[in-house]
Amino acid sequence: MFARELHLLNNSILKIFILTGLALIAFAANSVLARLALGNETIDASSFTVIRLLSGSLVLLIIITISRNTGSPGKGSWPASFMLFLYAITFSYAYIVLDTGTGALILFGAVQITMILLSFISGTRLHYTEWVGVLVAFTGFVYLILPGVTTPSVFGFLLMTIAGIAWGGYTLRGRGSKNPLRDTASNFIRTTPLVIILAIATINNSHYTAEGILLALLSGGLTSGIGYTLWYIALGGLSVTQAAVLQLSVPVIAAVGGVIFVSEAITSRLTISSIMVLGGILMVILGRYYINRLSTNVKT
């Protein structure tokens, strides 16, 4: 009996590990695809966002139909859908001026800060070591935007920060998902009214090529629609801390992808700021875990 339970546990852990790994690769791939499409001006940011969200909706509907997904009826939510749209549109416009690694660094740095602040607002108080981590992280952000050749524009920085805040909220909304596939599909479909408004408002400034459309379709149907579903599934086996820590690897994956596929260079400024931002956030996240563990050991 014990051997069987251990085998099931190992299978469960392996499943979460694989799903999480695939989701993180999808996150990084989104940064690479967006940079390839928008940095090379093969498509405008608005059209990229419209195609990305609509193709994500279509692919998820096809998967649900083919798989005859049953179980708890997923409904998604309007707040999650709004956060998804806000993330997608600011993400696209930010990548017009940001390179792959810098964009991913700002995005997932903002994600972690958002999760930390929401935890604080919900009643969790930070230990002094966690405050030190926040200070180090923000110092890294300041260093990243100091004047220099590789410094991102303030406009790009602000847009990607908003994208990170929206994605952090979307991630937290997904932790309670009972049917990740249907919830993700519903969230994508609910963005349709906003997508239509965006398309109409920017139609006069739209431009696209076959390459740009293909990259947007890959980003929407594969790395967003399927990738976000995998992430919602993985969140069921991850704590908030684990989910936050794991996402810290995305900027590194994206930066490597930018070097391989977009011929970008890993600069010393990006390297130093990455260490400061991610290291500081890691201090915040792990600090609470070890403090609680030490407190438990003292009581026992």
Please give the structural blueprint.
Layout: H1 2-39, H2 45-67, H3 78-94, H4 100-121, H5 128-144, H6 154-174, H7 180-190, H8 192-201, H9 210-235, H10 240-247, H11 250-261, H12 268-299
Q: Uncertain spans, ≥5 residues at pLDDT below 50?
A: 1-10
Span of the ends, CA to CA: 30 Å
Q: What amount of the residues lies in strands? A: under 5%
| Total of domains | 1
Number of helices: 12
**Largest beta sheet, briefly?**
none
Global mean pLDDT: 82
Share of helix, binned? over 70%
Q: Give the structural class.
A: mainly alpha
Q: Helix and strand string, N-terminal first?
A: HHHHHHHHHHHH
Return Rg in Å.
20 Å
Silhouette? globular
- The beta-strand count equals 0
Can you characterise this structure?
By secondary structure, this protein is mainly α. The chain has one domain. The chain is 79% helix and 0% strand. The chain is built from twelve helices and no strands. It is globular and about 60 Å long. The chain starts with a helix and ends with a helix.
How would you briefly describe this protein structure?
The protein is mostly helical and 300 residues long.
Keywords for this structure?
mainly alpha, 79% helix, 12 helices, 300 residues
